[in-house]
Amino acid sequence: MPSNTFGEVFRVTTCGESHGLALACIIDSVPPLIELDESMIQPDLDRRRPGSTRYGTPRNEADQVKIISGVFEGKTTGTPIGLIIENTSQRSQDYSAIMNSYRPGHADYTYQLKYGIRDYRGGGRASARETAMRVAAGAVAKQVLRKLFNVTIDGCVTAIGEINTDKYDAKVALDNDFNFADNSKIDDLKALFKDLATCGDSVGAVVEVRAHNVPVGLGSPIFNRLDAQIAQAMMGINAVKGVEIGDGFEMARMRGSQARDELTPEKFMSNHSGGILGGISSGQEIKVRMALKPTSSILVPGNTIDKEGNVTSIVTKGRHDPCVGIRAVPIAEAMLAITLLDAAMLNKAQCFNVPQGFTIPSEK
Amino acid sequence: MPSNTFGEVFRVTTCGESHGLALACIIDSVPPLIELDESMIQPDLDRRRPGSTRYGTPRNEADQVKIISGVFEGKTTGTPIGLIIENTSQRSQDYSAIMNSYRPGHADYTYQLKYGIRDYRGGGRASARETAMRVAAGAVAKQVLRKLFNVTIDGCVTAIGEINTDKYDAKVALDNDFNFADNSKIDDLKALFKDLATCGDSVGAVVEVRAHNVPVGLGSPIFNRLDAQIAQAMMGINAVKGVEIGDGFEMARMRGSQARDELTPEKFMSNHSGGILGGISSGQEIKVRMALKPTSSILVPGNTIDKEGNVTSIVTKGRHDPCVGIRAVPIAEAMLAITLLDAAMLNKAQCFNVPQGFTIPSEK
Amino acid sequence: MPSNTFGEVFRVTTCGESHGLALACIIDSVPPLIELDESMIQPDLDRRRPGSTRYGTPRNEADQVKIISGVFEGKTTGTPIGLIIENTSQRSQDYSAIMNSYRPGHADYTYQLKYGIRDYRGGGRASARETAMRVAAGAVAKQVLRKLFNVTIDGCVTAIGEINTDKYDAKVALDNDFNFADNSKIDDLKALFKDLATCGDSVGAVVEVRAHNVPVGLGSPIFNRLDAQIAQAMMGINAVKGVEIGDGFEMARMRGSQARDELTPEKFMSNHSGGILGGISSGQEIKVRMALKPTSSILVPGNTIDKEGNVTSIVTKGRHDPCVGIRAVPIAEAMLAITLLDAAMLNKAQCFNVPQGFTIPSEK
Amino acid sequence: MPSNTFGEVFRVTTCGESHGLALACIIDSVPPLIELDESMIQPDLDRRRPGSTRYGTPRNEADQVKIISGVFEGKTTGTPIGLIIENTSQRSQDYSAIMNSYRPGHADYTYQLKYGIRDYRGGGRASARETAMRVAAGAVAKQVLRKLFNVTIDGCVTAIGEINTDKYDAKVALDNDFNFADNSKIDDLKALFKDLATCGDSVGAVVEVRAHNVPVGLGSPIFNRLDAQIAQAMMGINAVKGVEIGDGFEMARMRGSQARDELTPEKFMSNHSGGILGGISSGQEIKVRMALKPTSSILVPGNTIDKEGNVTSIVTKGRHDPCVGIRAVPIAEAMLAITLLDAAMLNKAQCFNVPQGFTIPSEK
Fold this sequence. Notes:
Four copies of one chain form a homotetramer.
Chain A (H helix, E strand, L loop, with lengths): L4 E2 L4 E5 L6 E7 L13 H7 L16 E5 L1 E2 L2 E2 L4 E6 L9 H4 L8 H8 L15 H19 L2 E9 L2 E2 L5 H6 L10 H14 L5 E8 L13 H10 L4 E6 L10 H4 L16 E2 L2 E2 L4 E7 L9 E4 L5 E4 L14 H23 L13
């Protein structure tokens, strides 16, 4: 399907450039009769917005969302929900440096060669600003998931550069400026960011998101397995270069006798598979990890070429995040929410007539 | 889209269970006038088929493919290509052990709970036998890619359990029984498989695939970025639990000044991003790695429950691969081929009118 | 979506040429646990097959369908159903006349110009033979509709050339050789077909199909309204040139006070709208009419050109139906069944949580 | 696909209710480098908007469109185009009459039963107001069709109630208040509308649209034939109950020797088929007719029920069109433009490599 749409039934379509008039989003096939207003969407946007953390960009955008359709008297009506966020904080700026030259590690070169034109102001469509609409749509998905399926989703950063943790704690993450799962690493992180500021450099990160209380049966084989859909959802986020479900690459090193998750009537004895078996949710916690590369918007000069193929070099000024992973947590949560709701609705479409067999309780 | 279909324009739809009459596949929107016959499909099937390596299952299936439509006088006609492989090697067998109990690590539990019924013979639709049709469709995609876009694809195993290599060499891989990229590790691998046979256990693996001579401009932002589509393609293969593009998770540890790929008029100075920038191919080699978990079809007994929720245990007899990664190479190549061809055709649809600007030569 | 697929959730994909090895079909997202075997599909195929009526082609094809996947122990499993019909009755024939020249009124010219190649044997993919697979898939849809939604579908011919009827009677239609709704016109029809045989000419027809006991709520605005989907389904049948829902073109002549269907608690007071309001089923009988043009496969010579643009003329020999409308009834029923089931499943996906309000009883 | 989206590659998604904040639209996969600004969209909107004809509703809505993304320095960039029209003319009104009762012939009953809730203000999503966004998206499609394929589209009303014409003249239609193809019928029409005003009644209409200079090869068999897509596009417009391609239902009465369009090297000798053969454009003029039912928004009281199933009656006050067909012309043109552009782009995707054979010149 065209690339600005995600989901089969619960379907999100977005548009908007960094420096256009607005970002917009249309969400189709929303189940009716669900309570919804802007106050249920804004908090996730506030977690993502520039200015939300002192370790992100110093830009400050309100990212105020408005619902323009699909809600009546505080409830969804089943017609498409339109969302809009006006762009308010674009500084007028000198773009002559990047107008004709390609920033290394950015999408400048590929956009220009593919389309023969690009809106270079603030990164245009390739700007992470686009993800605001994912977060907004994800907040709607979260609300429906909670109301109709009792599913909840959270996330945190588990690694920044060489600093990492085995812990997963979404509550802890909400309380520090790095969305980090482990408070014992905060001092190390502060030192790292001080160093990054000195160097004018950036750093990569690992983000983990989880879904709780997921019913058995979401997702369907073969190509659109639930894990395949999640992989697409996450790899489609700016800067993501790797995705793991459950133990991920660690499982390549395991033996079958370790890796399989044995069953008991009360619970599974382990969750190496991350809550998905054969592409279908098992009722266990769904666990997804992703690697984000360090942003290329840095002050360290880089070698590159201009549009005519001449050698040149470039420095990316502007107000950039030294670690885009920090503000990626609500984006990843949003993509997981959209994916799971779509799968849950498709499951109703095909399997509404299936009587429930003996079921191991879902993992909270 | 329903789960047994992959691709938007070049679209592959498959069906077939392990123990049904046949596997079939319909490929839609194939460009016309491309030379095609069964002899261009069979070799990839032969690389995947059971019995192709002495370190795989001792089952021996001919996997003979027949083209039933869409080809006339040796050329594609633009109408859908139908492919069929008859199932010939199903042993009649005693399935009483798995009929009512769930093999841990398999899809038995999730299929049963989702659908209320499952064809337990040989794993049914969840059997890796299904991947034969991916390989067949992928061979068609490879032929079109080669003829119309000059793109080629190859792959190899780069890790089995704890044994791994930094090398990538598809030719070497074709010459050993493990499809392994590095001949210096063959003795270690033989020892490992001897041990696995003794224990009745299995082991995970990492497979890498690459595409060469890819034009700039394939794939489009936002949700269906080329890397997102590849992630879906790979994570949708049985047993895959992690996917990386380029340096993948390693990039989470890097700084921006290391990670960005600088440009020169002749070539990019590195390829950490794996040939994709902003979701669009850059003309560099496309590099994809994936982790496969060890199969749960092992002789080591496992704890589980039956359909009524009673505690029991299970041993998976039968003729199984100790490492499913070995035969996964042509499957991953096939999925990459289908994904790239679909993206190349979509690029023609939207951007056929774009004049070519200065282009860094594609990487062979 | 690629053109050989129909339906969003209940999704049918077909392939096969008139003179290839076989026709095949894959049906995805079939609800599980529905009783199904070949004997539930074959009767509809027998109504469509060449040789089924003495007023159709004298070709005689068995059109024997085989289920190759998706059914286990007599029930659907939720995995895709594969169907195959082998081609058995292709006469070896001299195609030199049509190989290089375009039959007027056929798709020869457009296929050749679009694809640069065409399988001219028996019309290739443009042959009505393709519709066998629609009928087979439709029979599966009918079975699911009946079991899960209690919906039934029937149809008849209501006009052939200038001979028409106001009646609609599917039972009468089953009993005569013209599938005609009105037995009082049979003598006229016999005379007409005698004349057609003498002239070597063909004639057009109108087919009507209806669905009974349809629940309220199938279909959704805006673009994919239920009537829009039905229009696509019917206009996609070979030779169809017009589609009407309810009173169709007659409504262009009406006033609003006549045309609206007033409501009472027991029933609607009329059904000008054909059972669909705002793109959503109303619980009334769904009524669809379609016009089929006369086939161009006739013995009367026609002016045309050859592939190089030279003037020539052509006579279509072979064993052709003088009125393709007669055998179109089960095809139109099949397309209606597929469309309704898909809509019913999508309705479950989005609106499963809606409590039932006061409902006028559905029309049988 | 979800119902508020149309098109496979050139894909239009809309949202918006009659009385919400705004209508919006996202158009995906627009070819880049096409000149575009609001002034190329507004004229078609002005032809559709309430207040554009003295024989339409006396409401007066500016329908001012704004481009919010996808255009840079006056050209399309290949990223999605966002369009927005603010709602400005909603009168505050007393909706108590229709809040709990169902207007006969409207979608009130079906929306309420399907979704369990409806925005009754001004018809909500079922209001014809929604079509403004189709017209806006269609204007974008027309611009691309003109620039890249040299195709143009026009339309007119050919029947209102019992008054009809054999003529087709889009220029004449632009010059009278009825968008009617034949100036000799204007006096009759004036008399008819005087009568309608007296009775408080409405009347149906027939609209015809045509595409000129269409290349051969657009559209593809089987299910998504070009005519099938057009049928869906048109039947999806509010109030449309019948669609014909070429001679439509008239062809049911013809013989094959009359109906087929013979070929010469210079042109086809007739165009009964309306420019489409086998689902593929033939290069002839594409001709589409559609019947619109009379609106049910009339002053004549109608019998109905309320939400609890009690008998009641209703009068639809407000500012309504006595003949919705008049303002439907630009809507039908828009849907034809979107359908053709999508087909043209898909044709590039699959058949870009086909060498051109001898081609009959396209019809202007």
